[in-house]
Design brief:
Blueprint: H1 5-34, E1 42-46, H2 52-60, E2 65-68, H3 71-80, E3 86-89, H4 98-101, E4 105-111, H5 114-126, E5 131-136, H6 153-159, E6 166-172, H7 185-198, E7 210-212, H8 219-224, E8 229-232, H9 234-237
Parallel strand pairs: 1-2, 1-8, 2-3, 3-4, 4-5, 5-6, 6-7
The structure holds pyridoxal-5'-phosphate.
Length: 245
Amino acid sequence: MTETAAEKAVKLQQFFRERLAWIEAEISAACQRAGRSRTDVILVGVTKYVGPEVAAALHQAGLTDLAESRPQELWHKAALLPDSVRWHQIGHLQTNKVDKTLPWVALIHAVDSWRLLQAIEKEAARQQRTVDVLLEVNLSRESAKHGFAAEEMERIVTDLAGWRQVRVRGLMTMAALNDDPEASRPIFAELRQLRERLQGQLEPPHTLEHLSMGMSGDFPVAIEEGATLIRVGSILFEGLAEGEP
Ligand SMILES: *Cc1c(COP(=O)(O)O)cnc(C)c1O
């Protein structure tokens, strides 16, 4: 007997409920170790590995925040999934894709140049929106391709004064890929310390409340070091064969 689409969807949701419960336990344990409240950390599910149906099942299973690294893929999925999803653009965003991206996103994580910041401000004004963004900082140097240098951040946050459509909400970083999660800890700690140094220098509406750091391999360490947004992809989908449990 072949399964109906509805039966498949129910199975997928069950798979994700269990997977989310397991990740939730890891997040809670890390929060407890760090003396932080569970409500201070947002789990962002990175759906770049799967199609819209699987992403929809993940959302149905209870995950509100979903992310894509390629803007075209974000537009595609966002148009198909319910409005209740909060979409995060986490990968590099080219200036020529800003206009189509703004209507869909709750947060842009990887603003990595002054030129992109200007393009978002201009387009947000045209679309009469405010847009929340994070500034990507390149702390792993040789391994990361994008991001501001830590040394230029002071000037960047000072120059934000007067900008109104684009609202900086925090910082984001990518640690180098490594089998040992502890290898990411110095990078995560550096982002937190950078935030502390810069915090007094921003004027409203800009804030540095968010730190987007940590992925499947190192999110518990990132939480211990102060992450408020963790970007988790592969461990959500491990064990799914061709998008099915
Ligand atoms: C793919 C991706 C992630 C998720 O990585 P996993 O190791 O699969 O959890 C997080 N952040 C960015 C920017 C990504 O491109």
